[in-house]
Every structure is written in structure tokens, then in C-alpha cells.
Amino acid sequence: MRGLLPLIALALMAQAPAPSASEQDEIVVMARKLDKLKIRFGGGLKSGVIAVKSCKVKQSSGDPEVDLIGCNAVNDCATQAISKNSVFNKCVKARADLLASELLDRRRKARNSE
Questions:
Q1: C-alpha separations of 5 from 29, 30, 34, 96 in Å
Q2: Model pTM?
Q3: Residue ranges of the domains in the chain?
Q4: 55 close to 73: Cβ distance less than 8 angstroms
Q5: In this structure, which of 47, 60, 94, 101 has its CB flanked by the most CB atoms within 10 Å?
Q6: Any idea of the CA torsion for 19, 22, 23, 28, to the nearest 10 degrees?
Q7: pLDDT tens for residues 30-68?
């Protein structure tokens, strides 16, 4: 997930109206957590597509919900019958961005309903 900090922050900010200062801080924190996250997955090609057999967190982000994003993104992209590593990696990055944005939205809604 390294090197995603600026892209994630921009993607998350572009999906919503201008965020408040605290929301901007949340976006930066989320991007840093994703950047810290390292996952390892095993698998290979099966019938010409990437087949994920295992996925685990190698270095935690410090947030269990964020840790799930990495493997969820890998598994989501594997189901799309992608056969090239470069396309798979782009898919995982884009899917992780989307899942992070959805997590931030859920957390904001939960906070606002309290």
C-alpha cells in the first residue's frame, strides 16, 4: 500500500463536498493507516486468472477495520478474472481506496447519529 497516501487523500476528498478540518484530518489519518498496512497473499494463476488462496496482514495499520481493507480488496479483484499482475495491482489500489472511503462514511454516520 506504500505510496498511496497522496492518491487516497485526493480520491477521498473528491468524492464528497468540501470536508471540514476534522474530516480532512480523518482522511489524512486513513491514508496514513493504509500506507502503513502491509499484506501478504498467496495464490497463483488458475485457468488464466489470479486465484487467491490465502491473505493475511503482515504489518497492521493499527486499526482492525482498516486491516480488513487490504485482503478484501485483494479478494474482490481476484473475483474479476484479472490475469495480469499490473492490472490486478491497480485494481487492488482502487478497491482499497473505495473501501477506505466507505469506512470513513460509516464512521461519520455512526458519530453523527450518537
A1: 9, 9, 8, 12
A2: 0.67
A3: 5-112
A4: no
A5: 101
A6: 120
A7: 999 999 999 888 887 777 677 788 899 999 999 999 999
